[in-house]
Amino acid sequence: MKLYIYIFLVLFVFTLYQCQTYKKTTTTDQKVIPDTTGSPVIPAAAAINLMKIEAGFEVELVAAEPLVTAPVAMTFDAKGRIWVVEMVGYMPDVYGKGEDKPNGKIVILEDKNGDGLADDRKVFLDSLVLPRAICLIDGGILVAESPNIWYYEIKDDKPGKRILVDGKYAVEGNVEHQPNGLLRAMDNWIYNAKSTKRYRKIGDKWIIEETHFRGQWGISQDNYGRLYYNDNSTNLMSDYFAPGYGAGNPDQHGVDGYAERTVRDNRVYPARPTPGVNRGYMPGTLDDSLRLTNFTAACGPVIYRGHLFGDAYDFNAFVAEPSANLIKRNVLREKGYEVTGKQAYQGKEFLASIDERFRPVSLYNGPEGALYLVDMYRGIIQHKTYVTPYLKNIIAERKLSQPLGCGRIYKIVPKGKQATAPKLPSDPKGLVELLGHENGFVRDMAQQLLIDGRYKSAIPYLRAALADPERPLKTIHALWTLEGLAALQTNEVLALLQSPQWPVKAQALSVLPSAINSSSYHYFTEALMKMVQADDQMAAPYVAFSANYIRPFDAGAADKLLMDLVRKYPGNAYVSAAVISNLAFREERFASDIERFVPDVNLAIKKQLKNVITGVNNSQKNRDPSLLIRDFPKGAALFASTCQTCHAPDGNGIKSLAPPLNKSEWVTGNKEKLISIVLYGLTGPIKINGHVYEAPEISADMPGIAHSDEISDDDVAQVLSFIRGSWENNAGKVSIDEIANIRKRYKDREKAFTIAELEGK
């Protein structure tokens, strides 16, 4: 009897004391019923029992505290080890005090005894302030530590020479709204979420280019290199076309086929009540059982590309929702250019936990085909800028502030299936063979190793793979590997442009920017013209995008391609957007040139051109920003850190996120309404200049900043004065007293406003 009591007390203390008491274990049969009045820490192995997962699958522990703490991102190296980003400093308490301490780390986790559970931790980098992303490349590692991206050479698992790649990687936005991801994509560029930049290492030089703005936290690709991402209230978004195309016109805000809503259903089905969400007090946020109804922290999406789950899971998208303690599964399909999807189930999730501290923030494909899950495992996930009094009370009541030293990594596998990662060979021929592996992770890794190793001896095998019609995925990876080795030949691309398999042909069209040069452009021009003449509608947007790369060598041929496309497809929104992406600073002349054969103003090409031309003409009327920065320095800084990440630097809004501030009657009109919106937020649709903005065109909610301890009335007055005088706006200043009066009027208010409330309806 005494032994039983002793064992019970040990288990009780082990569960409730601190995360740091974790010990390596594979036992998962502990039954833990969480305290409904608080939120206890559950040992990692026992926490698996609190997860309800789709039948036929199981969750396995890979690593847990103290081996890993506050993980937010990870990647694998060629040895199968896991490199982890630890954002230890995120929200030390409900006020975020101490968030600037240099306690973040990059660590290497390894399973040395082969039992599936990491047993070795090696700190690669420490003393980092809120690190957020990593990418292994060319014998080194990219590390995103705002506002910089650094490249470190790796010497025996220790950092060597450090090189600054970009000192302006994340100079704007708070922790929730700064770039992240560093996805090494199929086209050999590195892409980010919450960013308009892409990166590439060529020799010893780093190249930075502008690309499309994408998402908020997390980014993934499918088997054809198309990118997927989301924002916190959106299930899934994606590109329909190659990621490197379509961003050449700075005045074209939004290009059809990019940042598209892939899955429009945002409903979620938590396994437990979730009162601890920032707007849990608002009608509709929680259902009658106090469960979250729709995404509020969607992040870390991944397209499953492994072979382990079976055919039904091929081309599925999994999305993390840490505020509701779940992972959603979506089933995707292709139709023409478009990728659309639907939720796999109604009324349940792929995985949902009743452990309130289960916080999945990132998802990854694994080397053996498993789905990996990064669990930050903590109480507080909402950043201090937007924490409402309601949420502060919930955090206090449920004791969510502590402890902070937790973190887990799990993997999801089918029951009864052996999950073994293939051994990566060191010889080029063996690596080329893996370009056709059934697991997308393995294909990606083989491509990257061939490029990083500069294996010129692999080129004959790669060229042989291009000619293999039976293995299109191997052909595609061989194509991009040759591109990465600077060994791609004109005849090889021309041959693939004739492929009867659309995925292969699409990749040949996508690689053209790398293949077109002064000696090859006329061959590619001829091939593209033949596609237009043959009425190849699937290829048409790619032909339009490609014209921009023909132009430096033959402007006349490029213009003819665009004109011929407009004649054939004037009502096709995707072709029209691709055409306009070529027309930077030439939109009005082009519009005049096509007037004679496209007179209908309702066709897509005319509508899109009109929007761009109007935007250009309006921007020329913008006020001098330097004068406003001089008058309202704190307002300009606050706009850059908090507002422009959703509303755009030019105030014209960002597709899927937020409506325009420029020429908005809500900005230039009644100051009290504007102050109320900024302080307390806005929910639901809003009408601006006759157009109703609502989800999914924008996010359904704008958070308020009234409850931020770091933003004073003077700050708010300055940022509103800055916005009311920026661009084409020419409204009056906002005073500190006016801010204070609104605070006093609504001193007990927590919920966001609706337009109906503000208009007194």
What descriptors fit this protein?
alpha+beta, Neuraminidase, four-stranded antiparallel sheet, 22% strand, 23 helices, 29% helix, 3 domains, 761 residues, Leucine-rich Repeat Variant, Cytochrome Bc1 Complex, Chain D, domain 2
List the helices and strands and how they pair.
Elements: H1 2-16, H2 44-47, E1 51-53, E2 57-64, E3 71-76, E4 82-86, E5 104-110, E6 120-128, E7 133-137, E8 140-145, E9 148-155, E10 158-166, E11 180-184, E12 190-193, E13 195-202, E14 205-214, E15 220-221, E16 227-229, E17 236-238, E18 260-263, E19 299-304, E20 316-321, E21 326-335, E22 338-343, E23 351-353, E24 360-365, E25 371-375, H3 389-397, E26 408-414, H4 428-434, H5 440-452, H6 459-466, H7 472-484, H8 490-496, H9 502-510, H10 512-515, H11 521-533, H12 540-550, H13 555-568, H14 573-580, H15 587-594, H16 604-619, H17 625-631, H18 633-647, H19 665-668, H20 671-680, E27 682-683, E28 686-688, E29 691-693, E30 701-702, H21 713-725, H22 736-745, H23 755-758
Antiparallel strand pairs: 1-23, 2-26, 3-4, 4-5, 5-6, 7-8, 8-9, 9-10, 11-12, 13-14, 15-16, 16-17, 17-18, 19-20, 20-21, 21-22, 21-23, 24-25, 25-26, 27-30, 28-29
Helix pairs in contact: 4-5, 5-7, 6-7, 7-9, 11-12, 11-13, 12-13, 12-14, 14-16, 17-18, 18-21, 20-22, 21-22
